[in-house]
Amino acid sequence: MATAQRGRRAGGAASCQPRPLGGAGFQYKRGGERTFIHLFLFTERWKMSQLQALLNDSLIRTKHVENAAIININERKVCASTIGFYVPPENATNLIYTFYNNLMQVRREGLYFKQKHYKCVRADEYSIYLKNPDGGLIAVKTNAFILIATYKVGMYPSVCVEAVEKLEKMLAAYFDCPGGPENLYVKEVMKPHPGEGEVLVKVSASALNRADLLQRRGKYPPPKGASDILGLEAAGSVAGLGPGCKGQWKIGDAVMALLSGGGQAEYVTVPEGCLMPAPNDMTFIQAAAIPEAWLTAFQLLHFVGKIQKGERVLIHAGASGVGMAAIQLVKLAKAIPIVTAGTQEKLKATANAGAVAGFDYKNEDFSEKVLSFTQGSGVDIILDCVGGSYWEKNLNCLSTDGRWIIYGLLSGGDVNGDLLARLLSKRGTIHTSLLRSRDKEYKEKLVKAFTENVLPYFAQGASPRLQPFVDSVYPLHEIAEAHRAMEENRNIGKIVIEMPVST
Prior knowledge:
The protein is of the alpha/beta class. It has 14 helices and 22 strands. Helices cover 29% and strands 26% of the residues. The strands form four sheets. Strands 2-1-7-6-5-4-3 form a seven-stranded antiparallel β-sheet, sandwiched between helices. Helix 11 links the parallel strand 18 and strand 19. It is elongated, with a radius of gyration of 27 Å. The two termini are 28 Å apart.
């Protein structure tokens, strides 16, 4: 898998190497037990320090409460506490049960905590206030945590509500007004929570797509109900499960996600059927380069184009993320990939990926070159993300009964000329396809087919072995520069956005 860092391209197909733990650009390569243990310990220590800081800075130092602890609801245990404040496991479990099943009884009878009885003052689904002659007890619940704190007369425990809200925040790529890359910034937003049949994923890396650029310009709004945060794909680990999940995934699983939006943030919710297992020997950086690009290419070739063995496929923008994926998928289908690209460097990269021929669209008539290469027969399938300006050349090199599949309009959609007569003369068909706006059932069917028929070829030792090509990696706070790189067509393969290490 080829990877480069911020403007520096990797040569060949060298694997990403793990970086020192805690570095700003750390890449975690799974598969080594020692690496896994070190990373787990580092991450857990970091989580504890962040939660500890919340308790100390927001509550204890300001003397709003006496002691406090945070309970992780999914793990059913205390994950941080002030010094000397021990919460017995049975008390932690009882608090979780109280919020979900026992509020009425607590209102009537109060609550025992650390062998002391507290009378209920007020209780609802988010907070419980209790007191006894020695002082008070407050418990505040979010979707993921319960904060429990003791306080004395004259203290202000209500600030616990504000404190736990900080646990529900995350960082995300954002823009307030449509426009150029300069409008992008990193914003603190509310963390999403999984709904029915959804999985919460802690994102380690996402990847950039042309759709992100269009959305930033105000020309491609997210589908109804989708997150307005950028990002159509992500890789990371399962952090939570919504109601109704079927048990396919568990907390901690390494996954890749096909999204309608929301990937360029620290957390994202995903329908469980739109998740795939991340290949075991792959970093999250590499895995993030797979979902949108590879599923798009797979959909165009198999669901739309019905590719057959021996067919010739012309792939425009051959060095793009979709292009590099399509080359390998055409080869996997035992068909013949031919590409166009704008530089010799890009044509060389496509040849290394498996393209049998490539043509520089800037300096030569690709349609004539394709006809020459195919001895006048033309190509059976065209994957076209360019649109209007290519229509004549596309028809010129399309074979009789060929399929022209349009999935983007980089040059616009205007056509001046007798397109239909020429298309009819070849008995050709035009197909158009967008993946983002497809319904959940279609995407789940696509993900299932890809997982069964393609994903095994990413594993080490597979033949042929498929490889995601990562051009460059940008930290989230450099999201604007990543957009500039794509707008200037500097990338060969995918541009990946790496999330900061977080709780």
